[in-house]
Amino acid sequence: MSPSARLPAQSFNFAYLDEQTKKMIRRAILKAVAIPGHQVPFASREMPLPYGWGTGGIQVTAAILGKDDVLKVIDQGADDTTNAVNIRRLFAKTAGVRTTTRTAEATVIQTRHRIPELPLKDGQILVFQVPIPEPLRWLEPKEAETLKLHALEDYGLMHVHLYEDIATHGRIARSYDYPILVHDRYLSSPSPIPKFDNPKLDRSPALLLFGAGREKRIYAIPPYTRVKSLDFDDHPFSVQRWDRACALCGARDSFLDEVVTDDRGNRMFVCSDSDYCESRRGTTAPEAADD
Amino acid sequence: MYVAVKGGERAIANAERLVGEERRGDPGVPELSLAQIDEQLTVAVDRVMTEGSLYDRALAALAVKQARGDLMEAIFLLRAYRTTLPRFGSATPIDTGQMLLKRRISATFKDVPGGQVLGPTFDYTHRLLDFRLAAAGTPPAAEVAPISTAAAAPRVADLLGREGLMEASSVREDGAAPDLTQEPLAFPADRALRLQNLARGDEGFLLALGYSTQRGYGNTHPFVGEIRMGFVAVEYVAPELGFAVEIAEIVITECDMVNQFKGSASAPPQFTRGYGLVFGMCERKAMAMALVDRALRAKELGEDTGMPAQDQEFVLSHSDNVEASGFTQHLKLPHYVDFQAELHMIREMRADWERARHQTLTEAAE
Q1: Residues 224 to 263 of A: which have CB under 8 A from any B CB?
Q2: pTM
Q3: What is the ipTM of this complex?
Q4: Four-point Cα dihedral B118, B119, B123, B126, nearest 10
């Protein structure tokens, strides 16, 4: 028999993962929801996309997706970035669910690095792609140690680190992946969202799920959970502000991307959330035009 | 006017087609068949099977072809396929003592029962480019020793073991094989789990780590007790049958590293083992694996620790090239939101710095 004659035909289960795997992931999600902010280990699978591309988020999405769900995928706040398009394409192909670019219409939103500007509602689920789920990793690389620190609720390392920032730089020099305390208990990573988005985590009506594929961890912030960004009384937490509006829609309340327009130092600032920007301009993009 | 960079599905699909075209190369050159890859790039297929954790030559050959010879990419392809396969059970442990040997050497004894059999090794070839290979042709036939059977060639470690000079191989108490593809790796990991991680681990990473132990970063005083390569039977006990049936015959390479151990309060001076096992003929990997396995046992043997190869979290968390390659390469995905946040902060910090400097200069002038 020639080698190629033995090759199997290609076929996939709904949303790619087999049902056993989905069950295992759902159990991890349930545990994560029960212990807000606690990182639950799970037997992460190799996905058809590389680690670092959002395999954790993809597995969480695959495990929770139902036939009636409407899926939105964003990267850097935009639906049209290559990675977002590619992940949406994966689910359109393997699950055949409806996809949308509109935040308001989506039941499940998978995101990398942003939270949509439009406030999320009851019943929506936001799935974050997480590279390093352990907020203490850069202070203590050993997991055996950080596990103990979490168990003992010993977050002195982080407070000292933030204090040292203030002593050295006059401010907490963290602009993204800004550490949060979930439900007054677990120190967690909000994933690399800009700290601009941190306030949206607090008492969010939507369920927030975090998937880290390579690091094999899932954690969650259930709806209406208190989320506090770490700070000090004399150095309260604050978010980025721009002294200008979006050049396209005029928004003054959204996170702005800086776009270099020429080599003479000219810049323009536009909303990073493409759906927010388009709906403000009344030019909502055609339904998932690239799908 | 600003036009957003639309990374649409069309661009992605076209890039995929371009890869296909590049893979095929000049259509005037005959296309590679999977059989050619399997038969003529044997060790590439072996490596992809080993680190891909799946013994299937046809699929591995397909992965090598699809990845255009990028073996890490091929390993990733095979892993992504493997992950969806249903598991119907575990084979009984293979018995390498029963191996049909194609190669068998020991560096610790001049001769051993069963003899030293070089087999198809690069070891003593002169590394001179063979220009005759540039032209097609049939190589001259080799004279080979008759394949030794198990009884005639006992494992060298067992010979030492009979004298009590070699530690007994450890057996897991529950007898079950752990599987880090089914349960997430937790620390501290026991030896069985570590060996699974190392078997899947990147050859280059293990080679460098093993090498570091030889250069003084956690010396293990190793000798190659034995390297054997050949065929072993894979047996499976089907629940409905109740006895073992042979379901496959696979080629593997096993390396038993013999390491000095001066003894402790509870154990007499004896030799200890470092173990390496790979699919096919990935001998370099098997040897590196054996060095790192032994280095990772430093703590349990009460030796000094602290070197990279002795730190199981460091080694096991970074050995997987599918993980490492993904996370390294993800840096090319867009990060402009976080970068914008950083730009914002750096500008603020610079403004503070300029203000402070100005103030200092003004004060100095007064």
Answers
A1: 240, 247-248, 255-259, 261
A2: 0.91
A3: 0.86
A4: 110
